[in-house]
Write a structure and sequence with these properties.
CATH superfamily of the largest domain in chain A: Nitrogenase molybdenum iron protein domain
Mean pLDDT of chain A: 91
Strand order of the largest sheet of chain A: 11-10-9-12-13
Number of domains of chain A: 4
Oligomer: heterodimer
Strand content of chain A: 5-15%
Distance between the termini of chain A: 46 Å
Mean pLDDT of chain B: 92
Number of helices of chain B: 18
CATH architecture of one domain in chain B: 3-Layer(aba) Sandwich
CATH superfamily of one domain in chain B: Nitrogenase molybdenum iron protein domain
Distance between the termini of chain B: 40 Å
Structural class of chain A: alpha/beta
CATH architecture of the largest domain in chain A: 3-Layer(aba) Sandwich
Number of helices of chain A: 23
CATH topology of one domain in chain B: Rossmann fold
Radius of gyration of chain B: 22 Å
Chain lengths: ~525, ~425
């Protein structure tokens, strides 16, 4: 058993629902007790969908357990098919139904329905939401492959020289972090450089569309978490190559465009020019402008799903000039990628889905800004740190009414704005540093454009056994609160290394000089 | 006083509703499970912690159901069962001990710990009674460990509170001497203070509440205890109280001016207190409530309202809307119909109103579309889709999370039903 306060991911059947909800003309029959219907509200309330997810729950009760839950499942299957007329039925079990072992796949096959039935085996006690989405997408793609898939593929390759290159765009699902807008942004770039989109999936794809996947020249993988296994399958079976660069950040978008151009047989420089023409990139210039100087070396702690966390760390370091002081993810499936990325920054990756562990790591890193999920937003609120949200799990605020992609050059513009916004602006920061005793600039002043709510100062860990002299303590208080934790930590480390038991004003400044770059 | 007739006394001379057959449905139930009650129970009892023994789904449900992520460190958590727990590689009882020790070390201020059963823990027949007993012995006197089930296979939404309170009743101290009145059901603090204040002013002896703000301080219960239910979903708690010798005072539930007056007066009559004094005490708040309700009636009178099943509050709220605000009820859906507890309420519903019990959500949506009500009261999963179809909706969960009991809140309650109309009017202007 694992003690859990908050979870970063839901159970795997939520991942299946994200695929079902994204698609058209499919229905998902879930063998589950009544409470599991809560999942509908994720889509109707958080994503504000105007229709119910295409999901029927058997909602069995305790009294059904002694009788025939299998018959209940079959009745629900017949009803759902006749009411919703889907073109494919996905069937599966949630955690409780997994324990009663009714075999949804076998039970639905026995009904002799005239539509394809796709059984989903999603082990609820081992796996989580993103894995469930990837597995569901993979099972759907496999099940929908037409008997003449190979012929279709051969035909597509044979006609290649007579048409524009084509790709599939894989990965966007329901309840995804900005998937809707990323898709718009990336599709715009693809079309601009001369690549047509064959199929986008799972988003808005119907089962017949999945049958056409084999006709594209290559695949664009937007989110490896959900589309990685499908891309691998299509490569193995049809030799379709796929993109590996995720276009989050202007530099990553450049790399993505070059990669796609090569996959499509286009000239990379020409493609880059067209892409930048259709989507003006401002983030680079904004970051280079002198106003952004104050962003230099801001300590950023990054946590999210693997794709967004890795991308955010690179953008933070190479496009905003931050110093990445922590990098982590709850996506255990991508631990290797994350560890490799963390090495780029001389860090050890934090691979954890334990909210408390993440909180401890953030507190210890004393960052100037946290780039995280809604969970980290709460941690940051507690610690009084600025925070920008970069990844799922999602919140109603992560579905803004405006167009707000994370991907492409426009996405990079959005990142610049959203990450800089929570920070204190340059001149304000200077004034605050100079006039510590100004009563309006007192302890815990928030950035002026964000109001004047009091900020809770990070709680200091008083287990160092060191004694702060009165004068040193007073001096420490004059240091702006957002770097005070770092100053305290550095001074204590400095004192410990030198075997000092009391910290004086001198120690404070010696430490400052020691750690100054 | 406009509602002087004791409702219970009228049961025999009016058309008896006890032989009604509700529309019973068995299909997809679009309702929460009992774990969801933790969302308000953990705020109500400030020294209690709720540890769900369940799956990732349980944890995800509680954090999603009410958007409760606003509380950075809540007084609830889930011990998520994993493959090794199910495969017998780990001893479940030992695992519970380990997790509880971890939790108590982190939260030393906890005085009552509830082990809450879930669908998976019930299906694998995990013995939480044994675990609670053992852990109570181990951590006494600092921490009392209790258990109940909030599983979806046994409980619907507010039934989780019922199961929790029943567990508390079982460990409440005994008092066979003092006469007392217990108000049962968790209420917003402001409402609790108002109602308890009124009951004391009316002269009722030994008034206390369950649950109180501290789970550790339980009211004494004995054969001289009588109790009023403040919520309509407390059947098991009522049974547990009766098993301890306490006696239920039947009444309407304290929603609206009529319900609140009836509820308070039921206690006055039952204890044989002065009715004249009671009328004097209640006159001002009752008049205030009615005056405030009149304004809402302008918006609501003649509107047609459809209730989807959710919290068990549907019948008392339908009664309030119909009798005090002139609302026409098209269907009143309840997750389950507890006739004994709802007897007085059912008497007050208009003849022929369609009451449905259980649910087949798709068929119920068909009926709703056919009825074309002016307002649909429903859960969060249905509200936006119905709005998109053109229906005005009221989220039923807001009725559970808002202070709606008592005289002073009667108009606030009505206002919750007015707001969708007011909003539409503004947006259409």
């Amino acid at each position: 058993m694992q003690l859990t306060l908050w979870t970063y991911e839901g159970p795997p059947h939520i991942g299946a629902m994200r695929v079902a909800t994204a698609m058209r003309d499919v229905h998902y029959l879930l063998h589950a007790p009544q409470g599991d219907t809560y999942a509908d509200l994720l889509f109707t309330m958080i994503e504000r969908n105007d229709r119910r997810p295409p999901v029927t729950y058997t909602t069995f009760q305790a009294r059904d357990l002694g009788k025939d839950t299998a018959a209940l499942f079959q009745a629900a299957a017949r009803d759902a098919v006749s009411r919703f007329s889907p073109k494919a039925l996905m069937v599966g079990a949630s955690c409780t139904a997994e324990l009663i072992q009714d075999d949804p796949g076998g039970l639905s096959q026995a009904l002799g329905l005239d539509i394809p039935v796709v059984p989903l085996e999603l082990p609820a006690y081992q796996r989580k939401e993103n894995w469930g989405a990837a597995e569901t997408f993979y099972q759907m793609v496999r099940a929908m492959q037409p008997p003449d898939a190979v012929e279709r593929r051969v035909h597509a390759l044979a006609t290649r020289s007579a048409r524009r290159p084509t790709c599939n765009v894989l990965g966007p699902t329901g309840l995804g972090f900005r998937h809707r807008d990323d898709l718009t942004s990336v599709t715009q770039l693809l079309v601009a450089i001369g690549v047509d989109v064959c199929v986008t999936a799972p988003w808005q794809a119907c089962p017949e569309d999945l049958a056409k996947l084999c006709e594209a020249d290559f695949n664009v993988v937007l989110y490896p978490e959900t589309a990685g296994s499908v891309a691998g399958y299509l490569k193995r079976n049809f030799g379709q190559p796929h993109s590996t660069r995720v276009p989050i950040g202007a530099k990553a978008t450049d790399a993505f465009i070059e990669e796609v151009a090569l996959l499509a047989g286009l000239a990379p420089q020409d493609a880059l020019r067209k892409a930048r023409d259709v989507q003006p990139s401002r983030s680079g210039w904004y970051s280079a402008s002198v106003d952004a100087t104050y962003l230099t070396g801001k300590r950023a702690f990054v946590f999210g799903d693997a794709t967004h966390a890795i991308a955010a760390a690179r953008v933070a370091a190479h496009e905003l000039g931050f110093e990445v002081v922590g990098l982590g993810s709850y996506s255990r499936e991508f631990a290797r990628e994350l560890r490799d990325a963390a090495q780029e920054f001389g860090l050890t990756a934090l691979i954890s889905d334990d909210y408390l562990e993440v909180e401890t790591a953030i507190s210890a890193a004393a960052p100037d800004i946290v780039l995280g999920t809604q969970m980290e937003r709460h941690i940051s609120k507690r610690l009084g740190l600025p925070c920008a949200v970069i990844s799922a799990p999602v919140h109603v605020q992560d579905f803004p009414a405006r167009y707000s992609p994370q991907m492409g050059y426009e996405g990079a513009n959005v990142l610049f704005d959203t990450w800089v916004h929570p920070l204190m602006m340059g001149l304000e920061e200077h004034l605050l540093g100079m006039f510590r005793e100004d009563f309006e600039f007192g302890e815990g002043t928030a950035p002026s454009h964000l109001g004047h709510q009091p900020i809770q100062i990070p709680h200091e860990n008083a287990q160092t056994g060191l004694c702060w002299g009165e004068e040193a303590e007073r001096e420490l208080k004059k240091i702006p609160f957002f770097v005070r934790a770092k100053a305290r930590r550095n001074t204590e480390r400095f004192a410990q290394e030198r075997g000092l038991s009391t910290i004086t004003r001198e120690t404070l400044y010696e430490a400052k000089a020691h750690y100054a770059r | 006083m406009s509602f002087p007739v004791p409702v219970m006394a009228r049961a025999h001379d009016d058309v008896s509703r006890s032989d009604w057959t509700p529309l019973r449905e068995r299909g997809q139930h679009e309702v929460f499970c009992g774990l969801t009650s933790i969302v308000w129970l953990h705020r109500k009892m400030q020294d209690a912690f709720f540890l769900v023994i369940g799956s990732r789904t349980c944890a995800h449900l509680i954090q999603s159901a009410a958007g409760v992520m606003i509380f950075a460190e809540p007084r609830f958590a889930t011990a998520i069962m994993e493959e090794r727990d199910l495969a017998g590689l780990a001893d479940a009882q030992e695992e519970i001990d380990r997790v509880v020790a971890q939790l108590l070390a982190r939260r030393p201020e906890i005085r009552t710990l509830f082990l809450v059963g879930s669908c998976p823990s019930e299906v694998i027949k995990l013995d939480l009674a044994r675990a609670a007993q053992r852990l109570s012995d181990r951590h006494r006197p600092q921490v009392r460990v209790l258990h109940y089930s909030g599983s979806g296979i046994e409980t619907t939404f507010t039934q989780g509170e019922d199961a929790c309170l029943a567990a508390l009743v079982n460990v409440a101290p005994v008092d066979e001497e003092a006469e007392s009145l217990l108000v049962v059901g968790s209420l917003a603090d402001i409402v609790e203070d108002q109602l308890v204040g009124l009951l004391r002013e009316l002269g009722l002896p030994g008034v206390s509440v369950l649950p109180g703000r501290r789970a550790q301080a339980l009211p004494p219960i004995g054969s001289r205890t009588r109790f009023l239910l403040a919520q309509p979903f407390l059947a098991d708690t009522a049974r547990a109280l009766e098993a301890r010798g306490a006696r239920h005072i039947p009444a309407l539930f304290p929603f609206g001016a009529e319900g609140t007056e009836n509820w308070l007066m039921a206690a006055v009559r039952d204890f044989g207190l002065s009715r004249d004094h009671a009328h004097r005490v209640l006159q001002a708040p009752l008049a205030r409530a009615k005056k405030a309700l009149d304004r809402c009636a302008e918006t609501l009178s003649g509107r047609r309202v459809f209730f989807f099943p959710d919290s068990q509050l549907e019948i008392p709220l339908a009664r309030f809307l119909s009798r005090e605000l002139g609302v026409h009820l098209t269907e009143v859906g309840v997750p389950y119909l507890h006739r004994a507890l709802q007897a007085a309420e059912l008497e007050c519903l208009p003849t022929g109103v369609r009451i449905s019990e259980g649910q087949d959500v798709d068929r119920q949506l068909d009926r709703c579309r056919a009825d074309q009500p002016d307002l649909v009261v429903c859960g969060l999963g249905l509200a936006n889709p119905l709005e998109a179809e053109g229906f005005a909706t009221k989220w039923s969960i807001e009725l559970v999370f808002s202070p709606i009991h008592g005289f002073e809140q009667a108009a606030d309650l009505a206002e919750l039903f007015c707001r969708p109309f007011a909003r539409r009017t503004r947006l259409a202007a």
